[in-house]
Design goal:
Helix 3 runs antiparallel to helix 5 (97-127), helix 3 runs parallel beside helix 6 and helix 3 (47-83) packs parallel to helix 7. This protein has one domain. It is globular and about 65 Å long. The chain is built from eleven helices and no strands. It is an all-alpha fold.
């Protein structure tokens, strides 16, 4: 247990405290989007609906920040571990391999938690948004836990083991996912066929659960099951690819 905690401590310093890209990209980009679309470009929004729009878009940017942190940061961090041979060093420790990934998953979830809290504070301080502390806490918790499938998606992308391929896959997955799931603008603005695809994405499902908490409506259990299904599918695919790569390494050796 002490070795596991020590590894978490090392990863906390590496991935969060010394990771300037996290603060500049995963956190600042969603904050800039939020300030732009909730404070500056609001001329066409009636004053009576402004607070609702500011709160709804805040939720979208929380999820968008978690999306960036869960896929791009996860994939790039794990790839850097391999290219810098930190991955090999971790293999030499007595800790089992699953603890290597678990320690990183916990840190990535903490990273998402930090960004979600900061974005909420921006909404409170800049747009004077008010919610009971229980609602704020639940929205943040759901956003962080709900992005677990996205963390495994980042792990899956990192298995490409090539910087160019990983960056390409990051862009192919993250930005279309943000668009079609309605994080950048309302999903109702898209064609019906694209809406149907967007409503199947984990980011759309997380957003709708958060919206239900925000507006005090009943949470649709289909969205919870959808996130669990996404998690199961991605974990199975990740395990299969990892097993195949190990088998391939043994053959080459």
């Amino acid at each position: 247990m002490n070795s596991f905690i020590y590894q978490i401590n090392i990863n906390f310093k590496r991935i969060i405290l010394r990771n300037k890209r996290f603060f500049l990209f995963d956190m600042m980009l969603p904050i800039i989007f939020y300030l732009l679309y909730s404070k500056v470009l609001v001329n066409g929004i009636p004053q009576a609906d402004l607070k609702t729009w500011q709160m709804n878009y805040l939720i979208s940017m929380i999820i968008y920040s978690c999306l960036l942190g869960s896929i791009i940061t996860v994939a790039n961090t794990l790839l850097e571990d391999k290219t810098s041979h930190f991955d090999i060093l971790s293999r030499l420790t007595p800790l089992p391999r699953w603890q290597y990934y678990l320690s990183r998953i916990l840190i990535f979830m903490l990273l998402n938690l930090i960004s979600a809290i900061v974005i909420c504070l921006v909404g409170i301080l800049v747009n004077h948004l008010t919610l009971p502390i229980a609602n704020w806490s639940l929205i943040i918790l759901i956003s962080v836990l709900g992005t677990t499938p996205l963390i495994f998606m980042g792990i899956l992308i990192s298995l490409a083991n090539n910087p160019a391929t990983v960056n390409l896959l990051n862009n192919i997955v993250v930005f279309p996912l943000a668009i079609i799931s309605g994080l950048w603008w309302p999903i109702t603005m898209m064609p019906k066929w694209l809406q149907s695809i967007g409503k199947l994405t984990p980011t759309f499902e997380i957003s709708n659960i958060d919206q239900s908490i925000l507006h005090g409506t009943i949470i649709n259990s289909h969205y919870i099951l959808g996130i669990i299904l996404w998690l199961m599918i991605i974990v199975v695919i990740t395990l299969l690819i990892t097993k195949y790569q190990k088998h391939k390494e043994l053959i080459i050796e």
